[in-house]
Design a protein that fits this description.
Elements lengths: L19 E2 L2 E2 L9 E5 L3 E2 L4 E6 L6 E4 L10 E6 L6 E4 L11 E4 L5 E6 L4 E6 L1
Parallel strand pairs: 3-5, 4-6, 5-7, 6-8
Antiparallel strand pairs: 1-2, 7-10, 8-9, 10-11
Length: about 130
């Protein structure tokens, strides 16, 4: 029988507003999925973001996902809420979206779910 001995440093909490599972730091908004934002201009997402309602009334909008390193399992939802112009989803660095550099949509009410494995992003749902 193996016996495991844990010390106080094995489960160190360094941020009071963050959920930890072992030493794995979850996102501060883990329990709610993250922040929901309406964006009307180009925006760079953070690990705290979750859902984007994209208003393209004033023109096309580019949403840039953060570098996926360290974000394995993170999900973003993007919904286009207006009919004019297009939404472009881009990535930081060399990360791809389903093997492509960007993903675009022109359809009002289109919703896409993106997940990362920590290296690239993948479209895991379209509505």
């Amino acid at each position: 029988m193996e016996v495991w001995h844990l010390s106080a440093n094995d489960f160190e909490v360094t941020k009071s507003d963050t959920l930890y599972i072992g030493n794995f730091e979850m996102y501060p908004n883990f329990l709610s999925g993250g922040l929901v934002k309406t964006i009307t201009a180009n925006y760079t997402a953070t690990a705290d973001d979750y859902m984007f309602l994209v208003d393209t009334t004033a023109g096309s909008v580019t949403l840039t996902f953060p570098n996926p390193t360290g974000l394995s399992g993170k999900t973003f939802i993007v919904k286009k809420i207006t009919s004019a112009h297009q939404v472009t989803i881009d990535t930081t660095g060399t990360a791809k979206i389903d093997g492509a550099d960007t993903h675009t949509t022109n359809s009002q009410w289109a919703a896409h779910t993106f997940s990362t494995n920590g290296t690239d992003y993948f479209i895991t749902g379209q509505h």
